[in-house]
Fold each of these.
Amino acid sequence: MAQPDTVTRILDTAEVLFAERGFAETSLRNITSKAKVNLAAVNYHFGSKKSLIQAVFSRYLDPFTTRFHAALDDLEARHRQDGSIIPLEELLETMARTVLEVPAERNSLKVFMRLLGLAYSQAQGHLRRYIQEEYGSVFTRFTELVRKATPELPDAERFWRLHFVLGTVIFTLSGLDALRDIAEQDYHEHVSVRDLIRRLRPVVVSAMQAPLPEPPVQEVS
Amino acid sequence: MAQPDTVTRILDTAEVLFAERGFAETSLRNITSKAKVNLAAVNYHFGSKKSLIQAVFSRYLDPFTTRFHAALDDLEARHRQDGSIIPLEELLETMARTVLEVPAERNSLKVFMRLLGLAYSQAQGHLRRYIQEEYGSVFTRFTELVRKATPELPDAERFWRLHFVLGTVIFTLSGLDALRDIAEQDYHEHVSVRDLIRRLRPVVVSAMQAPLPEPPVQEVS
DNA sequence: CAATGTTGTAAACAATTGTTTGAATATGAA
DNA sequence: TTCATATTCAAACAATTGTTTACAACATTG
């Protein structure tokens, strides 16, 4: 067939519109008309709008988790031989590489990151629950490896720092278009996603390895 | 009067609901019923939902910019005397202190940060434009001071790093509730906003002072 | 007091939302 | 072919949205 099938057309259109305007701000009629598909097709194929949102995420996260698990398998196997601990840089590098690989096929890394950002910031409680349940284990595996790579960090400190850098990455890459416009206008330099990751690397590493904070100030009691 | 007036009741209720669920997901009927106010009151006092959203932001950002300008005046005056340059730490410290001061009266720093996060992540183009036009100048002043404090950084690099740490702060503080739940469950330690800022300080400073990235890889041409 | 402008209110408005229906059409196996 | 299943489609559904209207209540000022 010349045209991709209905399900694919819906997913392709939905992910772009969701990334552009958010979930609540994107109506089914909006999606179906742009996808040149009947309105009822969404409910027929996906059941509901919620399920469509989850399906959009699965299409990215399923291949991501598969590849990421494989990459971590590799990494662990290589370091089991010489008995060394996987350095933090390598872990971060592996994650970055996997994130870059997955959506490369469809040229939509931007969309992927924007969706991730939305998953955090939009209300959509069902989405957070869905992502946690479906993909929580790969994140747990990763954080466990980070724990071994940074034994000097207290557990709680590491937890927060991981989310600090997660914030940096998601915030930057999901708002990339707007930031890129400003950057090009002000500094006349074109910024690709790979450039950004190159800039992010030393910042993220330094952030994770920053000196420990002063102990909390005790109130007189 | 025992009850605060209608306008205040609407603003108080709206900011909480907006922060909890986002703008599109919060209906006017939702706000007015919870605020025990007639539905038409919003359009009567504010004109439209958009204007209400902007008014919610003004109530935080107006006092913030005023205080922040004053704090920067102080800082500059003190350093003009001995001719020294304001160190980065002091600039960041000043900003953090101002952010903490402003909503302290209403015990709603969480709401404030969450709103800031929404302003970035939600579609609401009118909001971004409004904030940029109304409050862009204070941000420009701040970045100019940061420029003087970090002369070793190329302009573009500093631009990106500022947005990296902006991402960290907004992402963390605006998703605070969810993260706090996980942290308390996993590490049995209660985290206040002040704790978080204490943890953020060394991370942000290290991030800004990270080594420069490797120069971009040149393709063969 | 009377007049005037401000604020509060119930009801209706038109538009848009996600979802469902039932019939039409296409597809594929017997 | 024939039958059954899968898909598409236009239409309608009920619910919810932001906004407007017309009127009542109130306050303020002359």
Amino acid sequence: MTLARGLGSAGPGPRGDAMSLSSELRAVILGRIEAMVAGGDLPAGLDPAAVTVEPPRDAGHGDMATNAAMVLARPAGLAPRALAEAMARALAADPRIAAAEVAGPGFINLRLRPWVWQGVVGDVLAGGRDWGRSGLGAGRRVNVEFVSANPTGPMHVGHARGAVFGDALARLLAFAGWEVTREYYINDGGAQVDVLARSAYERYREAHGLSPEIAEGLYPGDYLIAVGEALVARFGASLLDRPEAEWLAPVRATATAMMMDQIREDLGRLGVRMDVFFSEKSLYGTGRIEAALARLRDLGLLYEGVLDPPRGKTPEDWEPREQTLFRSTLHGDDVDRPVRKSDGGWTYFAPDIAYHFDKLERGFDLLVDVLGADHGGYVRRLKAVVAALSEGRVALDVKLVQLVRLTRGGQPVKMSKRAGTFVTLREVVDEVGPDVARFVMLTRKNDVALDFDFDRVLEQSKDNPVFYVQYAHARIASLLRKAAEAGMAVTDAALAGADLALLDHESELALARRLAEWPRLVEVAARAHEPHRVAFYLYDLASEFHAHWTRGNEDTRLRFLEGGAIAAAARIALARAVAVVISAGLAILGVTPAEEMR
RNA sequence: GACCCCGUAGCUCAGCAGGAUAGAGCAUCAGAUUCCUAAUCUGAGGGUCGCGCGUUCAAGUCGCGCCGGGGUCGCCA
């Protein structure tokens, strides 16, 4: 087969980069513009930044559309349609372009030759799961901080969503060329781990046969019984009847370590692995908070002052107080923020400043914090910290993750308050499995609430996007098994050698066009920090495939295994390409592709 | 009172650096199976994109102001 590698004419880059068709055509268009400038048909100095090339919403408008003439017409002092006509004539000379037509207010609609789409199939088979990797990140370093659940108990479903989102975002950014560090901030330095220690101490007493006194404010959860037993195993009776000052630190250390072990294990079951666990405690008594604040002071952003009371609803016990304040208002915050409590201790915000300072010192080019939506009020001040300490060089993107509403058969799942626990992450993963849990949690944008129905997510029907996408992949796997049984060579290398020009049916080309969207989708999703886009794309791709499959019922030409070995090889190559992209997409979501449905 | 998020078909939600006649699933109705998995597919009906101004050649998308829902609001993390 002498099919030109349409998209891959430049070949996959050293890191497997495959330029998206859109950006390749955009380059062609910019080239034409330059040529027109050189030829005096356009004035120099035009800014092409706003020129886009994208598949039109309406397929009837062609394969690709560009707004180039419309955005350049005014600065060039030309009529949009006239400019579009001239550009269309120039573009029609490109070998990939079958037709360039002007439409509407000045769009140029491009129709591409079939071999471009057929070439995509070959490119996918050559690139494998790396096809669609982007150089967008250009090797820059991004830190994605997520989960960061307090080590005071088991993780619940809300944490699961943050974990899945953060992990998928990390995978997406890596696929888009970023060097990614996944990080978990352990809140082990504040009062809440002291509460954990006191709660665990009661369980320790209980393990010695004494009756525990779970006072108001302590954690009542049964999960601390095991911690009590572990404390006995480790310290025997040596901590009994001793003052808190003696046992607090060792009990706290044991309890938090055990909680973190559990958290790590739960994350592991979800398929989430962290690169760094950063201890808040490590910031105290080490001069690191002081260093970060000193930096702020050097920048003139720290001062002693008195805040105005919150307007509207003034707390009863509010009284003016001089505090150490961070002038966050200079970096977009509404009010300046205190870093020291009236008792002289640090506010929660102080270690956060030090923590983000530490991230900056580690040289990241971009920071992402994934937080629960209830932390929305902290976004401004965190951004202010990063803007101030990096002096505007590093951006912080805060992704807020909304809550998960658990239901079963449409009825809300009751939380077990008596045991002091919510529905845990582990319970969810044990019941539905990591793949289902992950996929479902990525079928919504991060900032909208998610309904998670235990019955629905396990349903094997098209109502369930997890199943629907998996089924498409499994159908293709089944196809390849059958082809292999029939003696066909079904390795990607063998399939890439098929005569792809035989894929000339509109239904086949439509599938290939959908595949061609993948590299661009990766970039769009990565740029927006929105992994859910991948899930929606996979659904669309699966839908296209299922539709194509069913067309084979009426049109036998479309059946993958019929029509002779040569034609079958081309069609199986197409199917395999679909499977490759599905599995690449699922890999970003952290979901294992299914080889068969059961 | 201030700030953040949300408001798109009866329901649940997409809508990609603003782009052409706003999409999908569910639900409703009508169809497709001697044939690679019908666990699927095809078609129909269904919309003042919460409301109003503004910016733009072009606004669901950007800005401002309202309305409705949720969240947060100095010494808790």
Amino acid sequence: MELDDTDRAILRILQEDARTPFSEVARRIDMSSATVHDRVSRLEEAGVIRGYHAEIDPGSVGYGVSALVGLRVQQGHEDEALARLREVDGVREIHLTTGEWDVMMRVYAENTDDLRELMFGQIAGMDGFDRSQTMVILGTAYEEAGVPIPSHR
Amino acid sequence: MELDDTDRAILRILQEDARTPFSEVARRIDMSSATVHDRVSRLEEAGVIRGYHAEIDPGSVGYGVSALVGLRVQQGHEDEALARLREVDGVREIHLTTGEWDVMMRVYAENTDDLRELMFGQIAGMDGFDRSQTMVILGTAYEEAGVPIPSHR
DNA sequence: GGTGAAATCCTTCCCTT
DNA sequence: AAGGGAAGGATTTCACC
């Protein structure tokens, strides 16, 4: 789907605050709210907008620790290994990557004990992996929701 | 702030779809929409809900490549190094981590040429870093927005 | 936590350019 | 093909119980 500057302006607003009323979006981009509604519908249908999510403070719901985990997968075990990984509680992202690790995942745990149980109790015992490294996130210096949206193409 | 089961139910719904009308949230948790509104306001003010964001397909806005980048920071240069990093276009997350890398960041780029320019043109030339590794994301096997929200505590 | 009412917003249809 | 006006029905919001 081809996007124009108006579409990108809408995306920028909704990525920043997904609950902005269409009437206000309309005001800001100087169009009617019917048009905004129309464009948003098209963007949703085309898969440009995948969904709308509340961003929740992990600490408030009991997650005190997050980590990035690198994994080496044994040849031929890729599919089953990934299928089992996504069942592990706390795993929120699983990426296939180049470099030292075949898989990089992002996990959340209540505390370090929980994280240890997750890594040594669950993942270390799985077939299909032969090495891992846990990079505990000590702090986040910067985190912006979503992707940068260029003002034109 | 102390959360109860009702709060967590609301959070789960809004994390999944931030534009769910409060009237429907109310229906699902069997309360009035005024109460939902009241609770959501308190969750926002307490910082439990940090915001609402549209999830946008990176490919649709021109980002064909994403990567995780590990960096080693020279002692004593931490603050300035991080300050400069967050100015780099395409950088969306910067985490301080234990393990082989001091900093792990997530970047988006148009294509591999763009990513190379970002890494070799911009970051490699900066003071304060002495080693890096770029883990290009070849694919994402699983990605769930936000954090798991337990049904009780 | 709920009710009720006013203000606002969403949505659709239809008309215009 | 794209945008705007208008109108209904739904939703948000706020004062008060």
